[in-house]
Predict the 3D structure of the following.
Amino acid sequence: MARGNVLDQIHWLHDHQFPHKFRLIYCDPPFYSKRDYGAFSDQWSSLETYLEEMRRWIEAFYPWVDDHGFFVLHCDYHASHYLKVMADRIFGYDNFRNEWIWHYSGRRQPASLRVNSKHDVLLVWAKSSEARFTPVFEAWDRDRYITMKRQKVHRDEDGREWIWGHQGKGKSHAYRIYLDEHIERGRAIDTVWDIPIINTSAKERVGYPTQKPVALLNRVIELTTQPGDWVADFAAGSGTTGVAAGELGRACWLGDVNGEAIESMLQRLSVSE
Ligand SMILES: C[S@@+](CC[C@H](N)C(=O)[O-])C[C@H]1O[C@@H](n2cnc3c(N)ncnc32)[C@H](O)[C@@H]1O
């Protein structure tokens, strides 16, 4: 765990010839929200100053993402449009893979200036065309599956339910899709993720502002890495990335410039600095 600003942490990696590159660098930086969160401030003299700082971070990360790895930049409407263009210039437009939307519920108010904004944006670049995600599935039930397929359900001699599936164009080949197999596997995820924010009484809440849910980081890490891979988060706040990486058996570099963040990571991960 490293106490220090992002650029100093990266210098440390260079100076000490850190032997691993990262399969995933996840970055959840200040969003240019113009707010002071107490533990850290997201107030900048101008948008240009903010973007210049983010450019330095992303350029510093680039060489540390391994050739099959990913860079995931968590941001929101305040600056996501600028950050996407900027990071395209560093990672390459063709290496941009996905925009994942983390959609969360919460109190909604009738408003005339802006509709309730209840999502963050995770922008994802691969280091090269070789990088591959690991498919992730979400729970899926029989009734929703049948409603989506809009097909008559048949039963075989053992009572197992199935529907017709078709493969190929033109003279397509028909085959049986057994419902239990599909339901057990789950449904492949898409780019919009409904994951609740951490509510005030949740066990995982440590009180650090802008703390992200472990479920969100679990999904990011499962998609982009394999057990044993290295993950990094150089502005890790309360250390959510480290908790998820630990649960999933990934090795993890965590750092932050802020003492309160380091304290909260140390407690949460029960490790020493
Ligand atoms: C949005 S928070 C991260 C929250 C974290 N993902 C979590 O779940 O707790 C952004 C973090 O960036 C850190 N930060 C801001 N500027 C930094 C810098 N120059 N170097 C390192 N960390 C920085 C802040 O201290 C803050 O903890």
The chain has two domains: 2-136+190-269, 142-184. The CA atoms of residues 231 and 252 lie 5 Å apart. The first strand starts at residue 2 and ends at 3.
